[in-house]
Amino acid sequence: MSQALIDQARGVMEGNDRGTYTVPTHGLYPFQWNWDSALSALGFSHFDMDRAWVEVETLMAHQWDDGMVPHIIFHEPDDGYFPGPNVWQTRRDVPTTGITQPAVAGFALRKLYDRTEDKAVARERLAKLLPKVHAWHKWFYRDRDPKSTGLVAIIHPWESGRDNSVDWDEGLDAVPIEGIAPFTRRDTTHANPDHRPSDEQYKCYIWLVEYFRGLGWDNAKLHDASPFCLVDPGFNGILIRSCDDVADLAEFLGDPSMASEARAMATKGRAALESLWNPTLGQYTCYNRAAGHLQDTPSIGGLLAAIADVPHARADALARRIALLAERCGYLVPSHDPIDGAFDSLRYWRGPTWLIVNYLIAEGLGRSEQGAMAQRILADSLRLIEKSGFAEYYDPNSGEPCGGGDFTWTAAMVIEILK
Ligand code: 9WN
Questions:
Q1: Please, are residues 301 and 234 in contact by the beta-carbon 8 Å criterion?
Q2: pLDDT, tens digit, for every residue of 70-118?
Q3: Could you give a GO molecular-function term held by this entry (predicted)?
Q4: Does residue 33 line the site of ligand 1, with CB under 6 A?
Q5: Which of 195, 220, 261, 303 is 20 to 30 A distant from 272 in Cα terms?
């Protein structure tokens, strides 16, 4: 059974392989996405190590001069996706968006390095990639944490990778939608509109893009100028873990100065993460930096922080919180607490279960003495695959497949879990 699933997963990945990068799924997402690529590299690493490195190399080749790594790289023209390059107008030779996505690349590189048998080859590839990933991390702490709190903010919901999470509702209330150019969504022609963000949310997304574009995509200005400025525990957790992984890798490469810089960023971030602990919910929650308060939204972002090697007492509490969620749905981990009024079992990041987040949470819990819960999450993930195939995400009650089909990172996670 496992081998059959691995073979199928490999087929999905190969179907979305464009040679030097993968698309998340043909049709709905015809370009290279940042955190999709880093996670897909993990899948490749089990059957084609060279291709795994190439995936991350292609991503990092499109880093901006200031260190930012964009969230989409528009390698080939394709008008099947909105908003395309003509909306972003970032003026790059190969067009990209002007915002970023979760910093998974450092975490992925650590695994690629460990798994590459010929360490001379691994070191050679790493020597070129690691300074780029480190520069990205430094960019985060410079331009997305200008007051040096230890926690970075996102300025657009798309940066989080959890586009329409309930976490962003309050922040989006501060985004005016007047004056945007009329547009036609393309996502709803590929996927069921009931599974996608609402039109109102799309207007906010586009308003922010047009606003940042008007500021010339100058990252030195965007954080303070944005009406949407949210500190997400999951996003920060991934960055903290990647900084630690970069520190380890820099030690392997014999670069003590990079190692100590990266370690210092991780240590400061991990200490600051504590300020996002929400004792009422027993999980981390988002801090609305624009409004100046900790939110109470019970979303998966606060569980995803488990990836950051959090204190054992916190990991234990997160495992207990997930056990509670298990009583409220059929398949862990729902992206929003099913007993909260805003939960929607079908609508994207407002309830459905996603394999990539499951994997990242389980990976973190497994390192924090919560192996039993990690195994339970992975077992639920495989039950979903067996029931509903390689979907973009799943209804956490029925296990029904949602969004796009034949999804690259879902397939990559299956290989990662089963190998
Ligand atoms: C916007 C590609 C991406 C993922 C995100 C997911 C979704 C895009 C969209 O698809 O976002 O970036 O248009 O819906 O939310 O996590 O990287 O798979």
A1: yes
A2: 999 999 999 999 999 999 999 999 999 999 999 999 999 999 999 999 9
A3: Glc3Man9GlcNAc2 oligosaccharide glucosidase activity
A4: yes
A5: 220
